[in-house]
């Protein structure tokens, strides 16, 4: 052991620190003998591994080094000596599974993946830990998409349950397919845990269950360092862990010195693998952060050790402190045989499987289909084609649909949390998954080939274990859980992790509404549907009857990369003749159509029959009501715009009212009003509860009728945020439990940005706060990030529901021909000029519209931004055509971006520009991040060819604006070095830009230099205020400042004629400077802006410069303002907003200030670009407001 040199000092001389020191000294005696057993090679590997971890954390000054360093010997024992795996065939079916439940120690796993030869985990990738690389394979916790990672872990304890699921999968496959002469499945599951995992309830549920099942193929390795974030473990836990594990049915093995005893750990691991009757718990005592100054201390858990301490560790280990990320030839050779050893396992298993298939052809074919994740082709034929006509609870319908499938198809593992009589998931002659020797008092027994799982009252573990079953291999198992819907609140963390990992798990949630009755508000899920509807990559489906229940199960089984909750009723529901199983996959569809309808009633799940009955009664009152069934919002969102419009018809002015006894949040995207519940439930029989809450037909008719009688101005559109009841007379018209509410919510963003602009200075924009827009914006951003990450090996993404995304453009129902022409004309005449501002080839104005004829997503993007600019100029605040065009563009982009089609990058940038119209200062960079990631991943830069070059520089101008907005706190998202060709340095930039024969590239040079200016100022601020080591100490800053100043001076001196003013005069208060070339306007303005920023950032250096006009801040300030006044070209005005703000802060005379304010107001009026927020920021700087109209 290597003790810290000054441990008491490291612990500030506390009793706790002294206790740690004494403990370490005692352990050192134990370890001295153990260390002598290490070979020189093993000792070198351990030291190298620990220093590699320390370096990886230190490079970005963050991460979790301590645990990973303490676990080094465990890792060597597993990856070198015990675990069976194949780095070059990472999906090898019979590999051992390793789960890192204490996922924050992920560098432990990443480093061994690199050392053992996983191809994707290069040293360069390993060094991406905690970096800003969007394609990093080393996120802060392990993620399933990356080779060698079995499950995503992070929320502590869930990994234990995942490991139990993986072990159960093995046991089931073994019992189903192995023969005495063929063990085609023989893998073991290893689960690494820390002290914190043993305190999480889900881990304890899973540990108890695994012991009960006697999962002898499961081993938990406990990194027992007795430290958590707050301090030592005995701060909160003083139990006898070994006794607890033995009581739960586990074998326990102790390792006294887990930091060095590789021999002992290997022996324990091999003994665990050989177990035949119990799972094994190996209690390995380690020292967190061993070798560092904070060894054994909670400080070692979640912070880099510091450069001095890392250097000291290297000295203690006889390594060169000046060398980093050292992996010697000795270490490489130590692990060199792993890939070939793995390939031997793969080849041997494949040969065995072929022999198995020859001897057992039927079973072999079935096993092969399981390995490949294929269902029998005729599985849908097992679903009844029709159902009894009598009223049926959909929980019972669920059993009618699914149980015949579960009986015949071995892929399904079905479980329940102690609610078998209620959830209707038992099929005839089912066999329970149990240890075959178990004899129960109730007489229910089973074996490992069984596929019905009694989880007990363990909802969280049930769903987390199911994630493990699903993760064993893609679609080899489709786990199905079941419980009351309310109890999926217990399970929510695991359901979320399943969605995050794209695991196909189906959750059958029953008793899903106030109709569940007398159990009352504790069991009536008013708010829970909103959680699951909002959860990404999860289908929450509420079927209305047996036919829709069939559709729900078909959709769930076909959603190969998406978990599903099928939400069913306790109470009986009428069978509705108009429902269709095939239309459930659409998310919503028309049940009853009416010409010239007055209202659309949306019925959801158990309340569809309420909507139909209400429509019938309204008809008797001469009110025409259409009726929709709306089982799944997310499925509906994925449909083409024309289908969504034709289904909802809100664009025709028909108001929609949704009927569902849940909280209404989220329905504002589809409906104008809601019959909903905004309080907890009440203990009454089901029918009485519906009546109490106002969901009987007479009450619903009265509410809808009253809503329609309101004047349009009082009805409250979806975005206006007040209920009809409130608008009429204080909310007392209806029952306080249920009202027809005009759905909408107020928006308040109080998060200040780092610039002078705050949320209070930002004007409210209804488009920007539309929930549909916000959801679509996030979808586009995620899509671009996922595309950028796809350079690394990943699992298959989620399928896109709905129609084929490719082919010609069909505008039917989306946009009338006149509207299309109007928006296209506006794009070409108003939008394209500022996109083409630095491009005389007019890529955006001429080339892209031509390309758009063959590119539907590009055409929709062009129409969307043309529509949005018109809406902004005309101040349209509702019924946004641009929103629907924007959504359709994203829908069409999805498969093309996933296929890494570079031609859609232009559409991404155009959509990013659209977002900028309404983007607040706080969100500007967020809108740009996705584009930056795509450019970086695709290798696009400012010197790419043809269209991509123009598209890049359009993005780059926005990126510079984002950096200017941050007021010195942030750099551009793409560092300026990424704007140049890969092998080009900044020293070559001047010649590179000037070598172009067109003035456009010289204008782009000004953009580049402005980005360099923002980079320098941001680096300097971070160095002085945060202590960042970024090459910007005083001497380095001066050198960088001087070089950049010279580059700017040379830019001005060597401008080609097109970049120079054609007329200039010294008028007051600002000079008149007129340019003929578009690009000259903004490039000169950016040049002056860069000079202002540089001169203001270094007044000492400024004083040493020759006293010429160019060294005067005010000279540049006045020229910034004068350029905007003399050059009213609309394409350039929007790029003047940030330079005018920077210049305006230096103005002191009221006449100058008034002229700047007038100019900024004029920019917003002419361009539709949000600009007036900068006036508020300037007024804040000046200390008073500027009065007067434009």
TrEMBL record:
Catalytic activity: D-sedoheptulose 7-phosphate + D-glyceraldehyde 3-phosphate = aldehydo-D-ribose 5-phosphate + D-xylulose 5-phosphate
Residues flagged as site, Important for catalytic activity: 64, 301
InterPro entries: Fun_TF, THDP-binding, Transketo_C/PFOR_II, Transketolase-like_C_2, Transketolase-like_Pyr-bd, Transketolase_bac-like, Transketolase_CS, Transketolase_fam
Transmembrane segments: none
Pfam family, one: Transketolase_N
GO MF terms, alphabetically ordered: metal ion binding; transketolase activity
PROSITE patterns cross-referenced by the UniProt entry: TRANSKETOLASE_1 (PS00801)
Keyword entries, A-Z: Magnesium, Metal-binding, Thiamine pyrophosphate, Transferase
Enzyme class: transferase
Chain positions recorded as thiamine diphosphate binding sites: 104, 154-156, 225, 301, 487
UniProt remark on cofactor binding: Binds 1 thiamine pyrophosphate per subunit. During the reaction, the substrate forms a covalent intermediate with the cofactor.
Coiled coil start-end: none
Cofactor: Co(2+); thiamine diphosphate; Mg(2+)
UniProt: substrate binding residues: 64, 301, 395, 422, 511, 519, 523, 570
Keyword 4Fe-4S listed: no
Domain Transketolase-like pyrimidine-binding: start-end pairs: 392-575
GO terms classed as biological process: pentose-phosphate shunt
Record: active site: 459
Family as reported in the entry's similarity comment: Belongs to the transketolase family.
Protein name as catalogued: transketolase
């Amino acid at each position: 052991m290597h003790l810290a040199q000054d441990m008491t000092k490291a612990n500030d001389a506390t009793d706790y620190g002294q206790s740690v020191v004494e403990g370490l000294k005692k352990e050192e005696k134990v370890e001295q003998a153990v260390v002598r057993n290490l070979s020189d090679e093993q000792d070198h590997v351990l030291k190298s591994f620990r220093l590699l971890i320390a370096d990886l954390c230190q490079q970005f000054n963050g991460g979790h080094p301590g645990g990973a360093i303490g676990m080094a010997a465990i890792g060597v024992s597993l990856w070198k000596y015990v675990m069976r795996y194949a780095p070059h065939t990472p999906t090898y079916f019979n590999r051992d599974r390793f789960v890192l439940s204490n996922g924050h120690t992920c560098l432990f796993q990443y480093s061994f993946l690199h050392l053992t030869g996983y191809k994707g985990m290069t040293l360069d990738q390993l060094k991406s830990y905690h970096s800003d690389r969007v394609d990093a394979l080393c996120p802060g916790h392990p993620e399933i998409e990356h080779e060698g990672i079995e499950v995503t872990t992070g929320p502590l304890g869930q990994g234990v349950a995942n490991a139990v699921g993986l072990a159960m999968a093995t046991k089931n496959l073994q019992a189903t397919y192995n023969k005495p002469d063929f063990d085609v499945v023989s893998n073991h599951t290893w689960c690494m845990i820390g002290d914190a995992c043993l305190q999480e309830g889900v881990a304890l549920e899973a540990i108890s269950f695994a012991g009960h099942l006697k999962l002898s193929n499961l081993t938990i390795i406990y990194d027992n360092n007795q430290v958590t974030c707050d301090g030592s473990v005995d701060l909160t836990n003083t139990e006898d862990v070994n006794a607890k594990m033995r009581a739960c049915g586990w074998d326990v093995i102790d390792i006294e010195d887990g930091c060095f005893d590789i021999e002992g750990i290997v022996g324990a691991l091999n003994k665990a693998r050989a177990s035949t009757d119990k799972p094994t718990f190996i209690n390995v005592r380690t020292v967190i952060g061993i070798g560092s100054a904070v060894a054994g201390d909670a400080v070692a858990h979640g912070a880099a050790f510091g450069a001095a301490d890392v250097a000291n560790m290297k000295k203690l280990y006889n390594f060169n402190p000046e060398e980093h990320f050292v992996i010697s030839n000795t270490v490489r050779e130590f692990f060199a045989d792993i890939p070939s050893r793995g390939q031997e396992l793969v080849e041997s298993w494949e040969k065995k499987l072929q022999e198995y298939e020859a001897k057992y052809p039927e079973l072999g074919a079935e096993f092969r289909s399981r390995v490949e994740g294929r269902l029998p082709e005729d599985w849908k034929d097992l679903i009844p084609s029709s159902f009894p006509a009598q009223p049926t609870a959909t929980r019972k319908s669920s059993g009618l649909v699914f149980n015949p499938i579960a009986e015949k198809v071995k892929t399904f593992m079905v479980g329940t949390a102690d609610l078998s009589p209620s959830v209707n998931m038992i099929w005839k002659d089912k066999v329970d998954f149990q240890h075959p020797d178990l004899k129960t008092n109730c007489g229910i027994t089973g074996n490992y080939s069984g596929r019905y799982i009694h989880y007990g009252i363990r909802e969280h573990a049930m769903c987390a274990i199911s994630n493990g079953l699903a993760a064993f291999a893609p679609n080899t198992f489709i786990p199905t859980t079941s419980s009351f819907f309310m109890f999926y609140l217990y399970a929510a963390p695991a359901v979320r992790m399943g969605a995050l990992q794209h695991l196909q798990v189906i959750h059958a949630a029953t008793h899903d509404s106030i109709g569940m009755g007398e159990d009352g508000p504790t069991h009536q899920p008013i708010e829970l549907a909103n959680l699951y509807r909002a959860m990404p990559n999860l289908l929450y489906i509420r079927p209305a009857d047996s036919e829709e229940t069939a559709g729900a199960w078909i959709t769930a089984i076909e959603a190969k990369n998406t978990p599903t909750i099928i939400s069913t009723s306790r109470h009986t529901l009428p069978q509705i003749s108009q429902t269709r199983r095939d239309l459930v996959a659409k998310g919503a569809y028309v049940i009853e159509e009416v010409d010239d309808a007055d209202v659309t009633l949306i019925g959801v799940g158990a309340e569809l029959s309420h909507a139909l009955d209400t429509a019938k009664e309204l008809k008797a009152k001469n009110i025409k009501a259409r009726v929709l069934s709306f089982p799944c919002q997310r499925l509906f969102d994925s449909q083409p715009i024309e289908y969504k419009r034709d289904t909802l018809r809100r664009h025709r002015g028909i108001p929609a009212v949704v009927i569902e006894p849940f909280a209404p949040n989220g329905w504002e995207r589809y409906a104008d009003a809601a019959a909903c519940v905004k309080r907890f439930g009440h203990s009454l029989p089901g029918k009485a509860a519906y009546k109490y809450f106002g969901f009987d037909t007479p009450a619903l008719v009265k509410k809808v009728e009253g809503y329609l009688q309101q004047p349009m101005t009082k009805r409250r559109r979806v975005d206006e945020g007040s209920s009809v009841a409130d608008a009429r007379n204080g909310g007392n018209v209806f029952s306080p439990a249920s009202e027809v509410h005009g759905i909408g919510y107020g928006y308040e963003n109080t998060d200040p940005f780092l610039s002078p602009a705050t949320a209070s200075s930002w004007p409210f924009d209804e488009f920007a706060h539309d929930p549909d827009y916000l959801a679509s914006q996030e979808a586009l951003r995620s899509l671009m990030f996922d595309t950028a990450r796809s350079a690394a090996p990943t699992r298959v993404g989620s399928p896109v529901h709905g129609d084929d995304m490719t082919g010609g453009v069909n505008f039917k129902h989306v946009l009338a021909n006149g509207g299309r022409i109007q928006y296209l004309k506006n794009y070409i005449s108003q939008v394209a000029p500022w996109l083409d501002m630095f491009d005389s080839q007019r890529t955006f104005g001429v080339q892209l519209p031509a390309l758009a004829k063959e590119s539907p997503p590009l055409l929709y993007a062009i129409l969307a931004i043309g529509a949005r600019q018109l809406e902004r100029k005309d101040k349209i605040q509702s019924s946004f055509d641009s929103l629907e065009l924007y959504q359709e563009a994203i829908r069409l982009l999805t498969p093309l971006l996933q296929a890494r089609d570079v031609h859609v990058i232009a559409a991404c940038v155009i959509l990013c520009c659209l977002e900028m119209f309404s983007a607040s200062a706080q969100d500007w960079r967020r809108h740009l991040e996705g584009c930056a990631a795509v450019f970086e991943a695709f290798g696009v830069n400012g010197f790419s060819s043809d269209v991509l070059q123009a598209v890049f520089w359009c993005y780059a101008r926005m990126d510079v604006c984002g950096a200017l907005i941050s007021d010195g706190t942030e750099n551009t998202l793409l560092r300026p070095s990424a704007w140049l060709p890969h092998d080009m340095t900044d020293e070559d930039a001047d010649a590179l830009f000037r070598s172009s024969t067109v003035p456009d590239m010289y204008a782009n040079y000004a953009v580049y230099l402005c980005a360099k200016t923002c980079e320098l100022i941001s680096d300097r601020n971070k160095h002085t205020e945060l202590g960042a080591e970024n090459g910007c100490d005083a001497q380095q800053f001066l050198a960088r400042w001087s070089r950049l100043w010279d580059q700017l001076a040379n830019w001005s001196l060597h401008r080609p004629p097109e970049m120079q003013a054609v007329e200039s005069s010294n008028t007051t208060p600002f000079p008149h400077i007129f340019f003929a070339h578009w690009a000259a306007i903004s490039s000169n303005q950016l040049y002056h802006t860069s000079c202002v920023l540089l001169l203001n950032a270094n007044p000492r250096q400024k004083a040493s410069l020759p006293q010429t006009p160019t060294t005067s801040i005010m000279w540049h300030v006045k020229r910034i303002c004068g350029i905007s006044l003399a050059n009213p070209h609309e394409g350039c005005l929007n790029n003047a907003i940030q330079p005018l703000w920077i210049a305006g802060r230096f103005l002191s005379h009221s006449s100058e200030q008034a002229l700047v304010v007038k100019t900024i107001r004029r920019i917003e009026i002419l361009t539709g670009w949000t600009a007036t927020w900068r006036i508020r920021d300037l007024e804040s700087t000046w200390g008073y407001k500027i009065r007067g109209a434009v």
